[in-house]
């Protein structure tokens, strides 16, 4: 019944690599501890996935994903075989429940299963289920708060099978949005007073989907996904210049495109990206009691598209930054600082997964 991967919430033992399988690529991060409080980025690597290998978080072509993960593992130079993998938020049901305090572990499991059946829209024997005791329930000293997490068993097993076929062992399964939040929390701790009282919005702009999380004092107060991402810019390059998708994607990154690209293609994309961000923030205001955002962070593969940060900051009128999950970390001997700067925002989830080594 329960996940046999350690725990959806449990930490991994060293050495552990974070492996992020997204729609467009596989990314790997290995961290180590440097001193008492410090971290060191030992290795990181990415390889693009063939189109259609992963669609909406579902593994559609196992062989292609396994082949890509093997290449990433080899490219990174790591020897670690234990992996923390992420599940897309849309494929995991999470629910905070309140239960009586003082139960033994086996009683707690029975109670969690019984509660879970109320929230999960499919049979429990088709589900991988896990839970984490958060602590005493607010305003109720005799109760505890428990976070319940459940996913279709086949979706978890697909990722476990990919790790195994690549020569790795999945020991931790996390939710991608939780992993991103763990990496973000480390950055927020570097702000004055650890960012206390600040309402922070994180926009992870991927290939097809933008994931939005708004946080206050370490807790997520709002979360949603919007169908917008960098593929729309790539597809416009394909349409305008008659290139193959892969060539358009690589030229988008290198900037080797005709003179009219900026005015005719990039600028309209930036306008629509800024509109998506401002709409999402308005939606946050209208659907919650909150009326301000103090800091906006951009992450994901699209965060470094030239001009995006400036237009988002100008339209939203909110202090905006492109996030590097490795900010303040020491760098291992194989890490090139200049290359890292250009790629870091895409590694937020992989970094958060790698942090589970010490979680």
Automatic annotation (TrEMBL):
Pfam families: PilM_2. This is Type IV pilus assembly protein PilM. It comes from Pseudoduganella aquatica. Residues 16-184 form the SHS2 domain. PANTHER family: CELL DIVISION PROTEIN FTSA-RELATED, ETHANOLAMINE UTILIZATION PROTEIN EUTJ. One of its GO terms (biological process) is cell division. Coiled coil: none annotated. It comes from the Bacteria. CDD domains: ASKHA_NBD_PilM (cd24049).
